[in-house]
Amino acid sequence: MIQAIIFDLDGVLLSTDELHYAAWKSVADELGIPFDRQVNNRLRGVSRMASLEIILEHGGVVLSPEEKEAVATRKNDRYRSSLMTLTPDVVTPEVRNTLAALKQRGLKMAIGSSSKNTKLILERTDLKRYFDAVSDGTNITRSKPDPEVFLKGAAFLGLSPSVCAVVEDAVAGIDAANAGGFLSIGIGDAAGYARADKKIASLSELLTIL
Ligand code: B16
Ligand code: MG
Fold this sequence. Notes:
By secondary structure, this protein is an alpha/beta fold. It has 9 helices and 6 strands.
């Protein structure tokens, strides 16, 4: 019996892909690295530093640890400025109604996101009030596909993974959920992933499958 749902943020509850894309593109341009949406897709659910490694490898560029730190900071500064343009309207009525209905059913809800900017995004979009706990990039040391972010989320809720579902749009996130012993639910990109326990085309389907 599922008692709680842990939601990935970017790609599940809202899309900041375009904002990540613009910020990474600007730093890639400065480094002379070709960057397009195909490369950007590989960064889905991946931590900031791991994303930078993928971009550098794609461009055949080698940087020192200090240079990497500086580039990642530059990207994040630009990304955070663009997050200031977010308003509650970026969250669709379907997402909001689904969260409200699940909460009304008595399900516990948490966020399980790789992003260190999760709290800013939740505040800007007025999503915070639906969640009993937030596990994000600021409380983990290992990135998805490691299950740490979801295990911490379940621990914050005081529940065992066996009674929690995870909703994810990234293949790495489904692998993380499975590795942690959660029921994995794929949406978006991850809806086509064979290892997802359940697949949904849109968030409101949670109301019928759970
Ligand atoms: P930040 P999620 C992920 O969020 C994004 O999908 C991914 O593109 C990003 O690199 C990662 O967060 C880290 O974000 O730079 O803000 O710490 O899908 O796990 O909610
Ligand atoms: Mg995601």
